[in-house]
Fold each of these.
Amino acid sequence: MFTHESLKKALFANGISRRGFLKYCTTLASMLALPTSMAATIAQKIEQAKRPSVIWLHFQECTGCTESLTRSHAPTVESLIFDYISLDYHETLLAAAGHDAEKAMEVAMHDNKGQYILVVEGSIPVKHPEYSTVGGQTNLDVLKKTAKDAAAIVAVGACASFGGLPHASPNPSDAVSVSEIIKDKPIVNIPGCPPIPVVMTGVLAHYLIFGALPALDELGRPKTFYGQTIHDRCPRRSFYDRGLFAESFDDAGAKAGWCLYRLGCKGPTTHNACATIKWNDQTSWPVESGHGCLGCSEPNFWDAGGFYKALSIPSSDYHRVAGYAVAAGLAVGAVAGSMNKMKKSKAAKAHETVSVDDWDERS
Ligand code: SF4
Ligand code: SF4
Ligand code: F3S
């Protein structure tokens, strides 16, 4: 159990003020579509949360999802949330190797039977299970074994959610997603290649707070993060609505921020929160940096690809009222502002001499 004291010390040690933590809880409430008045309750629940045991498996994948989560430049509250889970087995991050690593998994499964969260990164080869093995066990066997006593399963990335790149034609291993194998457990899909780190930790934070997975859409994705399309919240949208399209990646229109639809942007058919949460500490995201969305959070995104070929859907399907979903997007977008303010708060406080005992009272 994490005590208030241990959380307080951890946040203080990372330069995050009590006010910054409460601000995070407020924006987390917005992200999770809860009333902001619940911020204090969320703070209390996180402080008192029992550390869930997490077993993180790697199957057919590139480890890009783990890289996405662990490559942040500075500690943030959401990265600390990741630290607050008990990561009992993770093939990339585990210090132990060989039999010791396998034993760590067995111990975690035994000691947390029915309570651990199973995180899966990568797809599962079913036609040739021997294509991908760890410790002599096929991915298929390991998934079935670890899923059996899991409380819930989190499929991170396009590979685990929908098969991803290993599933792309000709799919020599007959790669499939987690949900195509496991049918009797709650599964949340967090697609993307890779997914946005804040989305991964947001789902874990939700589990910490409520002890359950968030509401999901018909593809098993959390509605709060995947409820709108890239197109609905894209800053180039006003150019789209005015019919102003870049014709090449270096023409005057592209440089002026015009819409990338004719260059193959899949934003109109892609559900994700990149336009509001952004990437790399809210630095930018694909469309902002000049490249169309590839649709990486949708099924079959690689085969559906035609990355530089324009979508061919009737314009009436995506010429929606410009304000559509903006209100919903604002809640998620508030995260960026809040985190930036937290960073500034951290930077300012780094020059002050403050005791951890003052943490509760500081604002
Ligand atoms: Fe790599 Fe993409 Fe698969 Fe994640 S979803 S493991 S980034 S290929
Ligand atoms: Fe933005 Fe792409 Fe939609 Fe154009 S088509 S407005 S670039 S998401
Ligand atoms: Fe993926 Fe499109 Fe976002 S390619 S990273 S969903 S902008």
Note: The first strand starts at residue 53 and ends at 58.
Amino acid sequence: MSSESVGTVAAFKKERFQNDSYLPTQEIMDLWNQVHGELRNEFGEAVFRSWLKPLTLQAAYHGTLEVSVPTRFMRDWIQSHYAAKILEMCTQRNPDIRRLEIVVVQSAMMADQSQEEAQKPKANQNVNVVAQELQELSSPFDPRFTFDTFVIGKPNALAHAAASRIIESANVPFNPLFIYGGVGLGKTHLMHAIGAAMRQKYPEKRVIYLSAEKFMYQFVKSLRAKDMMSFKEAFRSVDVLMMDDIQFISGKEQTQEEFFHTFNALVDQNKQIVISADKAPSDLLGLEERLRSRLAWGLVADIQPSTYDLRLGILESKRTLLNANIPDAVLEFLALKVTSNIRELEGALNRIVAHADVTKQLITLESTQDVLQDLLRAHDRRITIDEIQRKVAEHYNIRLQDMHSARRARNVARPRQVAMYLAKQLTARSLPEIGRKFGGRDHTTVMHAVRKVEELMVEDTQIAQDVEIIRRALTG
Ligand code: ADP
Ligand code: MG
């Protein structure tokens, strides 16, 4: 019986132990129990529970200790991460032990569990069940989001080229691919395009795509159901893992920890990972340092805010897809006016097309201006730093001049930082310009304030709420 095969303990023992001398002596059993007990201290509670607890002593022969785990995946993982240390711990107690052999015995874990639990079907030992589970974990790809419908321009050229490389390369060209940029600029579109193209080109590969939010939801669900093994097995068995909007797990420590291990396991196996976020790895403040630095190991590609040319290109491509009769002047007008993001731009186009459909009128520049009145007004309205300072002072009930003063008391310094943050977010002013408006402060002070508030918004829901309320008052 090879160490790869899976069978019951009884069948395994029968073959293995024809020669009774393979059975561990009482002394070896005591030694193993001691070592096993110490693994928790050595590697920590989480690792112990996830990986090392099921280790079961099976045999001892010719200086070899043979221990079993229930799955191949666990065996490989323990082999590469913990086996050397475990052997060392054994050898310290008995120098005759020179080798640790980890074998797969499916029911090793069952034998260790209560009768009732042992009777439950074991999901993680069935490949089909894992595949099915993956299907559930993954979100479907939107058929509209393909490479064909993605318009390339200067702001997204790098991200697009990197995404294409992943499809074209026979192996993993860089790991991970990290795509970042503001909302509605095409990150999700690109990820779906990668996923769909992968599935088409390599139907045998397991490609999963999910949002970081869904990852967290599944993680918590598995924790509650005490079914972490299936969760780990499922994620570690994929060929391509795509996780959208990773900023969502900012401040969620346990989820980050789990993701970090999943990430490492897949990178170790040379599996492709694609991640998106609204910021560069170094700016994801709610993420642990080690995770942030690992995210930047591969290729980091940004998507810049759109340019007029790109917006026009997207509108033209949309016009063709919709097969709608829209004058060039209307597209040019929209490309000029709706600059916030592509999602809004598409929304504006859809609205005028729908309006023309319903009213059975031709689309003209006039009808466009009419239909989009509210949207265009919002875009024409420019928020000023003065307005922001006034609203923030009002909200926190401090004097307006404290926005400019040198006072450092927390009750005025914090609102001032919030105002600087909003100025950066809601206006096109540069950091030095903002600094000047706040009593001639240095641009590094503004930068610090922006980061500080971002950090606080993750940790402190009160601040996050304050910022949201003020933002609404300013933009609504
Ligand atoms: P993000 O995930 O960055 O917030 P999305 O990928 O959801 O943004 O994009 C928002 C909308 O804009 C989608 O409908 C998408 O198809 C469209 N879009 C964004 N960039 C492009 C592009 N370069 N070409 C075509 N459509 C785009
Ligand atoms: Mg998105």
Note: The CA atoms of residues 189 and 358 lie 29 Å apart.
